[in-house]
């Protein structure tokens, strides 16, 4: 039986938070932009970062994959940019929703907001159903509307990251932009505020119910190379992993799993590990 250690659980959490923090800093390494209000437009902006991080953030050094995908669809009337499609497939096939748990700056922000001391809404049947809403957002706001209206609908009407990192910061740092704000800007600030407040009470509310990037990576969960894997031969179906998880998973490693690793230390039969360890254990069993 596995010796469950609170120290081991804390070690996993600390390492993940460190990776999240470093990723957020690297994605927004154009530090001068935060006081000049000028967006970085160098060569690195041609590449996409893995997680949700707005192109218009003064600190952003790369492009958001969702924004790039919508731009590709908007311009598809003339020429479709297959680069972004290839990047999403590559990142999804290798990492899947590991990106959500480790490499998304907005995911980190949601987790920090959730730490505020208030009563929390625990997952239930309703949150499980709501977890499918992000696929509707993906189909309608990221694919259909950009093709019809020729504008990046998700960025324009929903994305809280773009408003927080891009819209508000740029307006604060550029006096000439303040006169251009109007109904759409106020609407986006209201949407962002609603989502942030909800994240105080609901763990990763945006990630679980709204984020279309998470929906894209979720589609790759069955084939993703890295992430949490379960040894089905060792698992005794005690369900401790599902109970401790704050996401709406049915089992570790499924489409709702962000591979945070919290389930590893509650598994008393040692059936849950990150992929490379599972593969190594299987190889050792085969050799013996």
Note the beta-strand portion: under 5%
Count of discrete domains: 2
- How many strands, what sense, and barrel or not for the largest sheet? 2 strands, antiparallel
What's the N-to-C terminus distance? 20 Å
**Whole-angstrom Rg:** 20 Å
Give the class from helix and strand content and strand pairing.
Answer: mainly alpha
The general outline is globular
- What is the count of helical runs? 16
Which stretches are low in confidence, meaning pLDDT under 50 for 5 or more residues running?
1-5, 277-288
Please provide the count of β strands: 2
Mean pLDDT: 89
Helix content: 55-70%
Strand order of the largest sheet: 1-2
Structure, described:
There is one protein chain. The protein is an all-alpha fold. The chain folds into two domains: 6-218, no CATH class; 228-287, no CATH class. The chain is 56% helix and 2% strand. The protein contains 16 helices and two strands. The protein has helices at residues 6-27, 33-36, 65-74, 82-94, 98-103, 105-114, 125-130, 133-149, 153-157, 160-173, 175-178, 183-201, 205-209, 212-218, 240-244, 275-287; strands at residues 228-230, 272-274. A two-stranded antiparallel sheet has the order 1-2. Helix 3 (65-74) packs parallel to helix 8 (133-149), helix 8 (133-149) crosses helix 14 (212-218) and helix 10 packs across helix 12 (183-201). The protein is globular and about 60 Å long. The two termini are 20 Å apart.
């Amino acid at each position: 039986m596995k010796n469950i250690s609170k120290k081991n659980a804390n070690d996993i959490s600390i390492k993940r938070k460190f990776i999240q923090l470093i990723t957020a800093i690297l994605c927004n390494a154009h530090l001068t932009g935060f006081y000049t209000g000028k967006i970085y437009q160098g060569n690195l902006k041609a590449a996409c970062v893995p997680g949700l991080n707005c192109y218009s953030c003064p600190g952003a050094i790369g492009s958001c994959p969702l924004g790039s995908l919508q731009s590709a669809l908007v311009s598809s009337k003339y020429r479709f940019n297959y680069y972004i499609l290839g990047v999403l497939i590559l990142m999804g096939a290798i990492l899947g929703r590991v990106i959500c748990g480790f490499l998304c700056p907005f995911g980190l922000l949601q987790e920090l907001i959730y730490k505020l001391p208030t009563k929390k809404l625990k997952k239930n049947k309703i949150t499980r159903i709501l977890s499918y809403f992000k696929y509707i957002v993906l189909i309608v706001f990221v694919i259909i509307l950009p093709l019809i209206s020729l504008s990046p609908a998700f960025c324009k009407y929903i994305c809280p990251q773009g408003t927080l990192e891009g819209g508000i910061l740029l307006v604060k740092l550029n006096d000439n932009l303040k006169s251009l704000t109007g109904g759409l800007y106020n609407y986006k600030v209201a949407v962002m505020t609603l989502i942030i407040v909800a994240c105080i009470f609901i763990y990763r509310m945006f990630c679980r119910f709204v984020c279309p990037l998470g929906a894209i990576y979720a589609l790759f969960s069955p084939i993703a190379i890295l992430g949490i894997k379960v040894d089905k031969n060792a698992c005794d179906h005690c369900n401790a992993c599902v109970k401790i998880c704050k996401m709406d998973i049915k089992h570790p490693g499924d489409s709702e799993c962000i591979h945070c690793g919290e389930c590893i230390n509650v598994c008393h039969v040692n059936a849950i590990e990150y992929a490379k360890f599972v593969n190594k254990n299987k190889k050792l069993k085969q050799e013996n």
